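User: Fold this one for me? It's DUF112 domain-containing protein.
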Amino acid sequence: MTMGFLDNITLGLSIALSYHNLLYCFLGVLLGMVIGVIPGIGVLASISMLFPITFYLDPTTALIMLAGIWYGSSYGGSTAAILLNIPGTPSNAVTALDGYPMARAGRGGVALFMTTIASFVGGSIGILVMTMFTPVIAPYALRFGSAEYFSLMVFGLVAASTISGGSVAKGLAMVVAGLMLGTIGADMYTGVPRFSFGFFELTESVSLVALAMGMFGISEVIATVRRIKPGDIDVDSVGLRAMLPTRDDWRRSWLPTLRGSGIGSFFGTLPATGPAVAAFMAYAVEKRSSSDPERFGKGAVEGIMAPEAANNSADQTAFIPTLSLGIPGSPTMALMLGALLVHGITPGPALLTESSDLFWGLVMSFWVGNLMLLILNIPLIGLWVRLLMLPYTWLYPAIIMFICIGTYTVNNSIFDIWLVLVFGFLGYVMRIFDWPTAPLLLGFVLGPLMENHFRRAMLLSRGDFATFVESPIAATSIILTVVALAWGLWSSQRNRKRRAAALQR
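Assistant: Here's what I get for DUF112 domain-containing protein.
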């Protein structure tokens, strides 16, 4: 008998409020804030570095900690964006457009205070949307077979490679590279090693931790250490007294915060979008709807409230497709999916019934984490300011050390550390030539799942490829894939013509 909604909430609270989970939730949000404040590291690198810790935890506790790191970094990332004009995460780049001018005008404290409020409201609305819609989607997802799952995964990968910007060819090439990396290891049906090149360590597949830490950790440090320098910060402008907003600030903020939360909740559920796209869209909507758009870019409080609310609500609703369908819509969600798979839990519609304690405990921990961040962020702003004033050359050796320690402790393997260095070098080279790394990670995580569903679908259909268009869900996914690919190619061609026309001028 299905538990009632209130029973689920009670179950989730009992799990989220346990001492063990409270401790790791606090640890996750605190580490997320610290790493979010440090310029250039970002949420992917931070989760990659701390990913090995979760292997020794209960699955629910592991996800609670990783989720805390994710939305904690969104809170912390706005600090460097506002004070130094250096975004801690890609979504915080929008916040810097008006946050930094506010700091230059002596209103840095107000900007930090208001972003904390916007982040809390946006996160809360995102949690409400997730709580209401994930259980609704899950029963429909139970109708999905292997053909439907494969088609949806193809759509997600193509959308992530084409819609989010950049070169379509490069994005698709990186997806294929990730899929190829995912085939390394023992065949899931026969157990025969594939593409291991004589290395015994590769018979179980390439380590997800080594790949993520190299691509997003080592390469990030190499790229960042060359451009980050300690900046001058007006300490007096971020004191507790200087944080109090005016009545006009509050009047201008509440509607943009609600609109940004709605935009973020919508875009968070879509593949290939996530918090960065949601933040840009929220900023564009506010600027277009403003009666005085010239204020934007010069310190408009609406320009920080809308994107901060949007990226935090998107952080929460991104869990909807990951948990209910088992399909991550972003690289960060791919790491969350990897954490579940490492613990032997398959995300999907059955998760809500077979592991209801995990799902509802995670959802209720989001409320706890958001409250912790609201309480912690403002008193610790002085600490973040002092951290930002440290030379970055003092920080990166410690980051590299923790990356190597974390990688080694997963399998006690020196080979994995060499993999980290190889992937770190490749990641940095890819940055130089503007090859996106996120599609590669998505392809690597989804590759084995896609192969499993493809082979199962072909077995059930006796080798008939028509099985991928006979089902309405699978056929719709294939059509959307073609549309996304065509749109991406058209957009890429249009941008190329625009750049050529600009050069001729």
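One thing worth pointing out: Residues 108-141 form the longest helix (34 residues).
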